[in-house]
Amino acid sequence: MAFTAVVAANASFVLLSASFDYPDILRDPDAMSRFQANAGVIGSQFALLAFSAALLAPLALLLHRRTAWIGVTAAVVQVVGLLRWPLLVPHLTDGATFDTLSVVLGVVVGETLGYLFTAAWTVAIVRALHIAPWLGWPSAVMIASGVLTPLHVPGADVVNFAGYLLWSAWLVMVGVRSLRPRPSNAVIS
Length: 189
Fold this sequence. Notes:
- The protein is mainly alpha-helical.
- The protein is built from 8 helices and no strands.
- The chain has one domain.
- Helix 1 packs antiparallel against helix 3, helix 3 runs antiparallel to helix 5 (68-87) and helix 5 packs antiparallel against helix 6.
- It is globular, with a radius of gyration of 17 Å.
- The protein starts with a helix and ends in a 10-residue tail after the last helix.
């Protein structure tokens, strides 16, 4: 599951970068019409990105029960933010509604809450299961720095992006660890 999430997230990000100039397009006042011009392809790429985010929920439930709610929340807010593209944007006719959805579902829900809950879940798993803390801690801090992006803090977007790359490597390590058989007396808390 962790491997699928990493591959799907990174593949969809590369595809969106090539077809839609993502994430830079988010600052383009013509983003809605550019999306609608190729909604089928770009919408399916956003759906793939949402699928990768959704995989965090079952992974969180399988890894550690007491911290699962944080991972599930991270998955839900990211999926809500991302699915606005294929589900709502193709049907919009005015820029004001698009701008409102972009701020509320995109910036506030999908990005800001997504960054905070993803970082918090990463820290919780590192603390509970001690999986690659040398990679988990810095990626969590770098992901959390994404909350500074809407404030136009220079470099916050680059640090956030690098954090997600590190987080992808950390998530692969989580996946490797989850494949190991647990001792018969192990209890997941």
